[in-house]
# Entry
Amino acid sequence: MTSPKTWELYAVKYGTLVERMRRESFVKLDPHDDGPMPIDYYVWAAVSDDQTIVIDTGFDDAEATRRGRSLIRSVTDGLATIGVEAATVSDVIVTHLHYDHIGGHAQFPAAKFHLQEKEMQFATGPHMCSHVVNASFTPDHIADMVRNVFEGRVSFSDGTAEIAPGITVHMVGGHSMGLQFVRVLTKRGWVVVASDVTHFYENMERRMPFPVIYNLADMVRGFDALAAQAETPGHIVPGHDPLVLERYPAPDPRLEGIAVRLDVTPNA
# Structure
């Protein structure tokens, strides 16, 4: 690997689902522990002096309508609030191919997509014959990614890989066959963008996985993999937790509730 550099790191909220229960977030939840549990949808951006790398692409309005989610702002508009122009981004890391992580891919016409080999194998192979497995995938997204492969716009990894100095990806599977998380070197140390390795802080803290599962054992081991790559547990950022917007500061007071800085010390 080349010598690492430090990056600014942002989370940008683009969607939400408020009317949702805790039983939808954990396997084998005690019924007495049920109650409301909203979920938020984010994309992330790592920014240096000479490069911007976006992590995941969210979903669009059509997908939000089809799946009963609330699209608060387009991914393009969300990224624009932190000065990132989606149309000019050269690299997008795709943590996995579920609809809420790849559905906005068309908003990045200049990008190369960085994906795990096993995730493409999963999304185009026999597992997709079962609706129980394919429910979180959208066929048009997968077909478009196959076209991107033929156009030379997809870079595949097989396990751990360096995407840029100071940015590495780590495959854990579990939630999806080729799910990967992203490790980013910032001024506060190595921060791990967990994506769906842990949807909420509580999944990881209680070691209770989210109930969309390809391999349960890999999901549980994924929590250990996050901890091994982060400076501290406080350097792990879950993929869907509304608490992220409470624990980290906005880059500008006008962006409260929209975007936060993950490369600075969390709020007390």
Summary: The chain has a mean pLDDT of 97. The domain at 8-261 is CATH 3.60.15.10 (Metallo-beta-lactamase; Chain A). The chain has one domain: 8-261.
